[in-house]
Amino acid sequence: MHFHGRTALVTGASTGIGEHLAAELAARGADLVVVARSGDRLRALAERLGAAHGRRVDVVTADLAEPGAGARVVAEVERLGVTVDVLVNNAGFALSGPVAGAARDTGVDRLVSQVQVNCTALVDLTARLLPGMVDRRSGVVLNVASTAAFQPVPNMAVYAATKAFVLSFTEALWVENRRTGVRVLAVCPGPTETPFFDTAGQDSVGDLPRRTATDVVATAMGALDGSGPTVVDGPLNKVTAAAPRFAPRRVTALLSKVVTTRRGRR
Fold first, then answer.
1. DSSP string of the chain?
2. 193 and 211 in contact (C-beta within 8 Å)?
3. What's the angle, vertex CA 203, arms to CA 104 and CA 265, rounded to 5?
4. Which tens digit of pLDDT belongs to each residue from 54-87?
5. Is 159 tagged catalytic?
6. The whole model's pTM is what?
7. Residue 264 has what pLDDT?
8. Active-site position among 159, 165, 174, 196
9. Distance CA 167, CA 75 (A)
10. Of 148, 157, 133, which is closest to residue 186 (Cα–Cα)?
């Protein structure tokens, strides 16, 4: 896929998969708008990618957990005079532990923030930027889902449910836009070696092997050259994502509980 001269907006760009996606898009010739809460990290990233690839990199500091954040991000993009050709909805986070325990220990608002960041902000940004892509008959919407989307996950119940939403939403968008010139894709990583686990808890996925952010980015970029709506990163993760189709959902939920733990740090 051609990215030279296009502008990509990447959320959650300060670390992990988002940072690597931004770097790969810049290497392929895209200008960037990078979005995250950490302005210092974003500015360092912008300086590094601008120097390495000679691309324009604009920084938008925003907390997507705040209601209305998507509208404020798009308003800032318009103020910058930028047209977004590629939208990467990568921002997201998880909390580990039972819902009742998390509600007591970290508060209900923190649980609800997962829905705000992982779902609401994603839909908000997509709905605001997609119409322009359709009008131009060109664009990309890349949503980062998860292998958690394929089954209920006790002890990460809200996170898995949000990623199931992202997967369903993306696959429906793919159908709606097949003839509009807009490429829509959900990439589904499994456990990945990123700062994600600083929030979710280092032991929230037990001893499952972890892929790297570089692996996930390579999978996503390769799949953008294809035509399907969904790609799962890594051979083992493909098996994990496919397995729930062959068992009742209550069984897959019970098996998922074996993998997750109650010991994850919140």
1. ---TT-EEEEESTTSHHHHHHHHHHHHTT-EEEEEES-HHHHHHHHHHHHHHH---EEEEE--TTSTTHHHHHHHHHHHTT---SEEEE-------S-HHHHHHHT-HHHHHHHHIIIIIHHHHHHHHHHHHHHHHT-EEEEEE--GGGGS--TTSHHHHHHHHHHHHHHHHHHHHTTTTTEEEEEEE--SEESTHHHHH-TTTTTT---EEHHHHHHHHHHHHTS--SEEE-SHHHHHHHHGGGGS-HHHHHHHHHHHS-S----
2. yes
3. 30
4. 999 999 999 999 999 999 999 999 999 999 999 9
5. yes
6. 0.90
7. 36
8. 159
9. 27
10. 148
Q: DSSP letter at 117?
A: I
Token pair recorded at residue 234: 């890594």
Q: Which residue has the tokens 């997507």?
A: 64
Query: How long a stretch of residues is the chain?
Result: 266
